[in-house]
Specification:
Blueprint lengths: L5 E5 L5 H16 L5 H10 L2 H9 L3 E7 L2 E10 L9 E8 L8 H15 L5 E6 L3 H9 L3 E10 L2 E10 L1
Parallel strand pairs: 4-5
Antiparallel strand pairs: 1-2, 2-3, 3-4, 5-7, 6-7
Helix pairs in contact: 1-3
């Protein structure tokens, strides 16, 4: 009998190629048809293995979830960047390889990200999601997030609405 394990851990520099691959797959899956193609390609290409390795070496808080020894997803966390919101922590990114979505790994990674923020004494949490990314909106709503604010991001002259979800 084979037993598959689920492990959650901090990223190490040698994980950079896997994180870059997840970033590419997840972003194309989530944002194709939402973010203009030219901008999407530029954002993905900017974050290759070298970028992720340097981010990890600079102490960016990157959390990985592994399923059966394969890195299935990542989250980045830190201090809330939106000063108008009282929540102290923020999940900047939470992405899974498309084939690992919808089986509960995202919820486990989200819980680990919240724990990482709590360990840093960052109370409350905010996550931003593009309003046209219905999968993300459903995910954060299902985790008990409350929509609290709206904003916008502009890509190649196209303004896209984003929504802030909070947890206290």
């Amino acid at each position: 009998m084979n037993t598959l394990t689920i492990d959650i851990r901090a990223a190490l520099p040698h994980d950079a190629p896997a994180i870059a691959d997840i970033h590419q797959q997840a972003w194309y899956g989530a944002y194709s048809g939402i973010i203009p193609h030219k901008s999407l390609n530029a954002m993905i290409n900017r974050r290759g293995s070298k970028w992720w390795k340097h981010a990890i070496q600079r102490a960016t808080s990157v959390i990985l979830i592994e399923f059966g020894g394969i890195i299935a997803g990542y989250a980045t966390v830190g201090r809330n960047r939106a000063r108008q919101l009282p929540q102290e922590g923020e999940i900047y990114e939470l992405y899974l390889r498309p084939e690992y979505q919808g089986v509960g790994l995202g919820s486990r990674l989200f819980a680990a990200a919240r724990e990482a923020l709590a360990v840093r004494n960052l109370n409350g949490l905010v996550v931003w999601a593009l309003a046209d990314n219905h999968g993300a909106l459903s995910f954060y709503d299902g985790l008990g997030g409350h929509e609290i604010a709206e904003g916008a991001e502009t890509f190649d002259g196209k303004s896209l609405q984003k929504i802030a979800f909070i947890w206290d």
